[in-house]
Amino acid sequence: MPGDGISLAHGIGGAKDLPIPPELAILGAVAALTVSFTVLAVAWRTPRYDESKTGRPAPDWLAGVVDSAAFRIGLRVVGIVLFAYAAVAAVFGRDLLTNPVFGIFYVWWWVGLVPLSLLFGPVWKAISPVRTINLVFARLSGSDPEAGVFHYPARLGYWPAAVGLFAFVWLELVYPFSTELGPVRLWCAIYVAVMLLGGALFGSGFYERGDPFEVYSSLVAKLSVWGRRDGRLIVRSPLANLDTTLAVPGLLAVLSVLFGSTAFDSFKDSSFWVRFTQDSDISTNLLNNLALLAFCVGVGLVFLVGCVTTGVDPDTRRLELPNKFAHSIIPIVVGYIVAHYSTYLLEYGQQTLIQASDPFGNGSDLLGTGDWTVNYWLSFHPTFLAVLKVLAVVVGHVLGVIAAHERAIELLPKRHQLTGQLPLLFAMIAFTVGGLYLLFAA
Amino acid sequence: MRRTAIVLTALLCASPILAGCSDEESPAPTSSGDETATVEITFSDGEVTPMGDRVEVEAGKPIELVVEADEPGELHVHSTPEKEFEYDAGSSTFELTIDEPGVVDVEAHDPKVVIVQLEVS
Q: Of A13, A274, A384, which is closest to B52 when you measure between CB atoms?
């Protein structure tokens, strides 16, 4: 137990966001509903995002910089330095909430990856320390980092990443000792061990499918403007980029965990759930475990049913549809993450930078940020924050509906193109209205 | 028809912004004046009342926690930064103000229970 008497059983958050005002929630829901059917009624009728044609090459100088060895190595060094810094704080720092490792782990890494990937593309792939270590091992042993002992089984797809992401959200949201040093250290050690083993067994291709953070970051990066074609860096619209998401097994599972867990995080702070769990004879921890699982599985099931209840050609396999449509949940997930985590990222992100200056808890100021103070501007402007939340959710919803529409006219037979989209549209409306309801009620 | 739909959509999307702007101009009604919000908390036979209720309070206004307890213990207020209050058996009163808007849990830690959630706005 920590020595300073501050509870660690509460996560690193102090105050949480105010609920959004009901009129904003209703406006957002109405907007989402209207836009959904408008898209269906007025959007294009022939597929428009052909991966081999969309986008244009990035300027030569930019492609030159991005593809240069110096840039790539520089990013790998940044990743390793951050990793080493966090590891040193985790091993030699004190078991106090002021240890920056908690903020680095739960705020910078988990939430910070989202804006970084939105702006710059697949960031984690570029800085991932486990990739770098795998690369160095391969160099030292004179083998090929891409090659492993076995071929990665295609059937596994993103499933290892889905399991890893669930393990992360479980630690963050349900596990009662999530802000004690021991469990965080153990989690990270297991993560690194599994990643290095995976890299050795299957080659570095494993990270593309099995590293929870790389999968998370690279999927969010599908909403950035950066893509590649035949190795060439290209710039395309986020919607065209989103359409290039591969329908890999487990894609829906990954996105269900991301969306379901964020929704559960809103839900678990609601007065309803707090009172219900405290009144119940069943242990709060067990109820939270069940609810987290139920949210993730529930999101997946709602989407699955929305996808398969359509007419298809005789040669289309119905059960393949959910993964082929699942990329359309990415913007919904990102919108909801922006809504749910903006204050958390900005305010605890700053606090982490301040704490990072004293990784050992001995009063040192290594980075010179130790005497900075946190700017709480966002918390002090709750109306602005509420509008930002609703806009993020509605914009995410609109992009998701358009992405699903494009895929429907590509995959579904002509006569089912409109009606076939309806169940999926209802599923998405359920997500968005449900999300807004949680922002309002929690 | 098509144009109408687009215009309607654009308006609906913009309305939260408009609503937001007009909201920001008018400060929250200050009907309560300088009145102190009071939250009564009772500990008895290991039970706490209330158990997770929401209480609306105003940012920057004093809040009084009135504790009636049969054994000594500690209250944790999960504001930013956190506050702690130790109480003895009998009745005790603690005053605090929270400046930053948000939802703040007031907890007992033995057993770990959320007593009230202060909705500070």
A: A274
Q: How near does any CA of chain A get to the CA of B84, in Å? A: 8
Of A38, A269, A380, the CB nearest to B5: A38
Write A316-322 long-range contacts (CB < 8 A, 24+): A316/A411, A320/A247, A321/A411, A322/A252
Distance CA B62, CA B58 (A): 8
Q: What is the pLDDT along chain A (442 residues), one digit of tens a residue?
A: 333 333 333 456 678 999 999 999 999 999 999 988 888 888 888 999 988 999 999 999 999 999 999 999 999 999 999 999 999 999 999 998 889 999 999 999 999 999 999 999 999 999 999 999 999 999 999 889 998 899 999 999 999 999 999 999 999 999 999 989 999 999 999 999 999 999 999 999 999 999 999 999 999 999 999 999 999 999 999 999 999 999 999 999 999 999 999 999 999 999 999 999 999 999 999 999 999 999 999 999 999 999 999 888 888 888 999 999 999 999 999 999 999 999 999 999 999 999 999 999 999 999 999 999 999 999 999 999 999 999 999 999 999 999 999 999 999 988 888 888 899 999 999 999 999 999 998 7
Is A27 in Cβ contact with B19 (below 8 Å)?
Answer: yes
Chain B contact set for A13 (CB, 8 A): 78
Phi, psi of B85 (to 5 degrees): -130, 130
Taking CB atoms and an 8 Å limit, are A14 and B81 in contact across chains? yes
HSE-CB at A249 with a 13 A cutoff on CA atoms is 9
- Would you kindly state where each structural domain of chain A is located, as residue ranges? 2-441
Buried residues in A163-197 as b, exposed as e (16+ CB within 10 A): bbbbbbbbbbbbbeebbbbeebbebbeebeebbee
Report d(CA A211, CA A45) in Å as an integer.
37
Cβ contact, residue pair B80, A376, below 8 Å: yes
Q: Which two tokens stand for residue A440?
A: 């309002």
CB contact under 8 A, B6 and A14: no
Residue type for position A126: A
Query: What angle, 0 to 180 degrees and rounded to 10, lies between the N-to-C axes of helices A329-343 and A251-268?
Result: 30
